[in-house]
Write a structure and sequence with these properties.
InterPro entries: Transketo_C/PFOR_II. By secondary structure, the chain is mostly helical. It is 45% helix and 0% strand.
């Protein structure tokens, strides 16, 4: 789906995000590469909370707390 992620937003009933780190040629560990691109579990959690904040379902303070707790910069 990453190869055709540009085709999906019209067909997805909600917001669409396509995370991935393939093809960037980094020689670091997978964990460090995922953190670099913001697709590790902690970064995805903060991104999901941010999306819920934009929809009015989560308070902004929750996002800040989660980011601080997990060391995610955004």
């Amino acid at each position: 789906m990453r190869a055709t992620s540009w085709a999906w937003p019209d067909r997805a009933p909600q917001d669409w995000t396509s995370p991935g780190t393939d093809g960037f040629g980094l020689s670091d560990s997978r964990a460090v590469t995922r953190r670099h691109f913001g697709v590790d579990a902690e970064s995805v959690t903060v991104a999901a909370l941010t999306a819920l904040t934009h929809r009015g379902e989560v308070k902004a303070g929750t996002v800040r707390l989660a980011a601080e707790r997990h060391g995610v910069r955004f």
